[in-house]
Amino acid sequence: MKLKKPIVFFDLETTGIDIVKDRIVQIGAIKIEPNGEETIKNVLINPTIPIPEGATAVHGITDDDVKDKPMFRQIAKSMLEWLEGCDLAGYNSDNFDIPLLAEEFGRLGFDYPYEDTVYIDIIRIERMINSHKLGDTYKRYTGQTLEDAHDALADVKATMAIFEKQVEENENLQTSISDIALLYTNENKRVDFARKIFENDGKYYWNFGKHRNQLISETQDYAEWVLNSDFAYDTKKHIRRILGNL
Fold first, then answer.
1. What superfamily in CATH does domain 7-182 come from?
2. β partners of residue 44
3. Which tens digits make up the pLDDT trace of 62-118?
4. Fewer CB in 10 Å around end: N or C, the chain?
């Protein structure tokens, strides 16, 4: 890969799959600099809410494991500094990890990811060329069985290995992060990380619910309901911006 700026491969383990209500319990991340230098972060986090047994069954992290660990608000500023100027990559990160990370930062008043951040979701590339579970994908590309699945750092390393193989084995795959990101965009541009809103031809539409595909400008009562309900911070931020420009 020819990198113009650093890229961070990352994975989150969490208390569950609700972007608004659940919290991070582990961040595994590897930053790759344009010169190839790598920096690793592997952090356990006290989510401040109980970890359900179902979540522990997936990633193996218990309440006792994190009771003395820092809360997200205690590491947020240092994490932002570490992520400054970086693109982001992960496995199914567009649908889960990035929206949840954005929500954690949003609760603290930080707007992240930044507007110039490019996102690479390895599973979306994989869906264009193969089938999709991380362990199966890893074995197909490397011939090895993925050990320690659902440990965040192990998953990050597997994701990186897959991405490297994807680029190496597919000569038509661009080597620019921005060009790769464009491979799975379409005319409907996602606006918020939770994908509740999309943009088409400069206009903003709902991407869910009874007003799906309708203009936000023509459903302001619905927008007010969303603003007063349990939706993501980032989604509400964009709705306020859209309504404010009307």
1. Ribonuclease H-like superfamily/Ribonuclease H (3.30.420.10)
2. 26
3. 999 999 999 999 999 999 999 999 999 999 999 999 999 999 999 999 999 998 999
4. C
Cβ neighbors of 12 (< 8 A, separation 6 or more) are 24, 26, 27, 96, 97, 100, 101, 152
Query: ω before 6 within 30° of 0 (cis)?
Result: no
Q: Which residues make Cβ contacts (< 8 Å) with residue 206, sequence separation at least 6?
A: 196, 197, 212, 213, 214, 216, 219, 222
Closest CA to 128 of 182, 208, 188: 182
Beta strands at 87-90 and 119-121: parallel, antiparallel or unpaired: parallel
Q: Report H helices in the chain.
A: 53-59, 63-66, 72-83, 98-107, 122-129, 134-142, 152-169, 177-182, 220-227, 233-244
Numbered ranges of CATH 3.30.420.10 in the chain: 7-182
Around Cβ 139, how many Cβ atoms within 10 Å? 14
pLDDT in tens, 23-64: 999 999 999 999 999 999 999 999 999 999 999 999 999 999
